[in-house]
Design goal:
The protein is an alpha+beta fold. The chain has helices at 8-14, 21-26, 31-39, 60-71, 79-85, 135-145, 150-160, 164-173, 180-192, 195-209, 251-266, 276-281, 283-300; strands at 18-20, 43-47, 50-53, 76-77, 96-100, 112-116, 124-127, 130-133, 215-216, 220-222, 225-227, 231-233, 238-243, 270-275. The chain has three domains: 8-53, no CATH class; 60-192, no CATH class; 195-300, Endonuclease, Chain A (3-Layer(aba) Sandwich), CATH 3.40.960.10. The strands form five sheets. It has a four-stranded mixed sheet, with helices on both faces. Strands 1-3-2 form a three-stranded antiparallel sheet, sandwiched between helices. Strand 12 (231-233) and strand 13 form a beta hairpin. Helix 6 (135-145) runs antiparallel to helix 7 (150-160), helix 6 packs across helix 9 and helix 8 (164-173) runs antiparallel to helix 9 (180-192).
């Protein structure tokens, strides 16, 4: 069998074992040589006109590259897949998503979901050799696609890799796209730091639960210090504090919160601390923990000293 042109093997290695038909022809192979490789099972078809060398193993990364090669010029890996490709989440996509221009002719396949959307130039990038949505749009779309886990991913991205302004700009450029309303809600929570939103969520949960005896920002005096917990059960000595997104926390505020908590605990209070993610992803558990703490104190029948 004729040897492969010199540039073929390095190309296949760079693409994790993959090569497109057009790439092979451009590198000097003939149609007959491609067919011979397929007939001998040296190569296998992974998508129409996209081949994998059987010397290389399949992986999620290979499927991503294959979808990008198959979708062709103008396409971009997107959604959860793009977020994973950028390293924003460790959770691999179950189905590879690729966005193509509205005029494109590709259709979804069992291994690849095709989204038709004309992406703004600022929201397209090349990362690790693959055309992909830009980092900011990948974070937003990925957060929406991940559902309950998406907000935590977006919070990590804001702590380490993105500015809020980058996300807001990407959102404005893509208003009206599928998932845009959900992305807007996430951005609103992120911009607010989710502290005020978290407090409103907690109040709503408490009202629905029917639990009584709590007060909002009640004054508690401890050793000359005045503390106002977000929620306080004064008779039972149970305080509930809520935190916003981690990226929004300033060191000074973080330190003040811990001083307040230590004063309350030192005075015999039970302090429960919840995040925006707790309140939105596991609200039943939050209420259960609060009810258990209050019930335990009420059953102790110990007069309060605060």
């Amino acid at each position: 069998m004729p040897r492969l042109p010199a540039q073929i093997r390095p190309l296949i290695a760079r693409q994790e074992g993959l090569i497109g038909r057009d790439q092979a022809l451009a590198a000097g192979m003939t149609v007959a040589q491609i067919r011979t490789r397929l007939d001998r099972d040296d190569w296998v078809t992974i998508h129409p006109e996209v081949y994998r060398s059987t010397e290389h193993e399949l992986s999620t990364s290979v499927w991503v590259r294959a979808a990008s090669l198959w979708a062709g010029s103008g396409s971009s890996v997107s959604g959860h897949t793009a977020a994973w490709w950028w390293g924003l989440t460790d959770q691999p996509p179950g189905l590879i998503e690729v966005t193509v221009p509205r005029a494109g002719h590709r259709r979804s396949r069992p291994q690849a979901r095709v989204v038709r959307r004309n992406l703004p130039p600022n929201d397209r990038a090349v990362h690790r050799g693959v055309h992909v949505t830009g980092l900011a749009l990948s974070a937003l779309d990925g957060a929406v696609a991940l559902g309950p886990a998406g907000a935590a991913m977006l919070d990590r991205a804001l702590q380490r890799r993105l500015q809020l302004a980058d996300l807001e700009a990407a959102h404005q450029r893509n208003l009206g796209a599928n998932g845009s309303p959900a992305a807007g809600r996430l951005l609103h929570a992120a911009a607010d730091g989710a502290a005020a939103i978290s407090e409103r969520l907690l109040l709503r949960l408490l009202r629905r639960s029917g639990l009584s005896g709590w007060k909002v920002n009640a004054r508690v005096s401890i050793g000359g210090h005045v503390i106002r917990p977000d929620i306080a059960f004064l008779d039972e000595g149970v305080a509930v504090e809520v935190d916003g997104w981690a990226w929004h926390h300033e060191p000074d505020r973080f330190q003040r919160d811990r001083v307040r908590q230590n004063l309350l605990v030192g005075a015999g209070w039970i302090v429960l601390r919840f995040t925006w993610f707790d309140l939105t992803q596991r609200p039943e558990e939050v209420i259960d923990q609060i009810e258990n703490a209050v019930r335990r104190r009420r059953s102790d029948s110990v007069p309060s000293t605060w």
